[in-house]
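I hope you will forgive my troubling you with a question about protein structure. You will find the record immediately after this paragraph.
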Amino acid sequence: MDNEKVTWAEAERVEKLLHGFLRRMVSGVNDDPAADLPLAQLRLCNALRGKARSMSAISRELGTSLSAVTQIADRLERAELVKRVPRGDDRRVRCLRLTDRGEEMMRLHEENRVRRMAKVLGQLAPKQREAAAVVLELLVEAAGEEAGRDGDAKRSKPHFDASRVVI
């Protein structure tokens, strides 16, 4: 890894580019059933995709207090997107799981995100798409290392020299 000092201007440029990209990806999205959910509720629903989880496990994963998770869960339960269920091995412990409505909303949310990304990527040449993916993988990995954890980053090296890529 190159330990050259990063300038403020470099960091600011990349941050503004990422922010602008993300804003454009979500602006004007009317076909996403999760578009009106606050970010904290969306993150909790995402953590529940396909499995029931304890409130404490969700709290650790999201890096938020147990009381905050409880408040978010209460709102999502009132909206009939999650429900509290007993844990199989200990009925005293309650877990959260998405309702059928919540699972469907999250499935549609993911489909919409992938569809929007496919439209954007369709405007790039294959080599540019690969280069974009490699750069994003490097940023995700570096962000995980900066936070002291791996996150979801793959630990593999890019199969070509990303410094030669022209986007």
Remarks:
- The helical segments are 8-26, 39-47, 55-62, 66-78, 100-121, 126-146.
- Residues 37 and 76 are 9 Å apart (CA to CA).
- The longest strand covers residues 90-98.
